[in-house]
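Whether sequence alone determines local backbone shape is best considered at the level of individual chains. In the encoding step, the backbone of a single protein was reduced to a row of integers, each denoting a local shape. For completeness, the protein is quoted in full, as a sequence line and a line of structure tokens.
***
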Amino acid sequence: MTPAPSATPVEGSGGLLLQIEGQIVPNYAATMVAFEEGDVVSGKVVRIDKDEVLVDIGYKAEGVIPSNELSIRKSVDPHEEVELGEEIDALVLTKEDAEGRLILSKKRARFEKAWRRIEIAADSGEPVEGSVIEVVKGGLILDLGVRGFLPASLVDIRRVHNLDEFMGQTLECKVIELNRSRNNVVLSRRAVLEEERKEVREQILGRLEPGQVVEGKISNIVDFGAFVDLDGIDGLIHISELSWSHVNHPSEVVAIGDTVRIKVLDIDRDRQRISLGLKQTQEDPWQRVISTHRPGDVLEGTVTKVVAFGAFVEILPGVEGLVHISELADHHVENPSEVVEPGAKLNVKILEIDEERRRLSLSIKRVEGQNMPMQDLGAQIAQAGAQGAAPAEPVAEASEPEAPAEEVVPPEIALAEDAAAEYDEQAEVEAAPEAPAEPEEATDS
């Protein structure tokens, strides 16, 4: 057996040229990259087909990247992922498949690099960036080199109703969960936004003072009030501070998105809470009452509410007073609804103005020429008439001289006399001295 000729590297060629039996030949083995399956190699894109990409990595044959190994995105066009001549990294899947091809994966090389970057970010708390590539049930999928899941509840500080508007956007998020065995990455954009807003809150709290009037936008409405966005921090308008009038629900006064002028009532800097007032930026109708009206004045009003102890009457927009049950009518009233009903317009006399407690005591019965009807009086008369119409006794034959006949009273006169007697009897009972009820005073709503 003839021994192989010895080869000697040509000096100055860097091992790329060999001298064999006096001849200089290329050293092809020196130009080939040494690698194993699982290694990440670099190469140049030399061809792009609809279902694969060929890459020259300096091996004896070009590497093949199937289209499904180009990106973590689904159904990609190879021409959109790479360009001819572009230098890319790829992970070696198989050095030689059944057809003798070198199989590579661009997405897995990117995955490995991205995973290391994500691990570092998760440990340090630094945010990562990724573009939204899918909207799925419950959240968004971001391309970080790895598929990252951003739950809908963590997309923003407030709930997002339309996730589609984020499609294609690049978002900055924090990594809150990482599991390599499941290739699971969970993100939170809300954590980034809250951190940014914390700094903004401190700046806003630093410049706000009680008594200032500022502008804000209604960001949320709840049963107990409305929240206002003050360019980075929310303040609360309690339902009692929305209007000088009575408010059943905040939505009667404001709507989400409204821009409002509000007054800063109080600031809790430790808890970062701001109390706001809307009605304080509006005219106080109570001041009109104090400046223009006195006890004894008669005004027209509208019954707004009937309760067991009387009725509330609005005399000015936002100002109500109480007519106590004892001030509703000259006659006895068992139930205020016998005399008045919500929506009724009538005249009232001011009995008392309590400036400190912002309360008005009113009277209906003391208004001259205004007599409140006694309801059901006709029914009382009819009932009395029915009781007075007793059947006549049969006349017995007289064996003795008849007594003088009694005067016959016509039935209609008897009915009226019986009803009058019953009414007088009731009036005597009502006329009996009793402790007068103290009228309750009304607050302005």
In short: The CA atoms of residues 96 and 273 lie 66 Å apart. The chain is about 20% helix and 35% strand. Confidence is low (pLDDT under 50) at residues 377-384, 389-445.
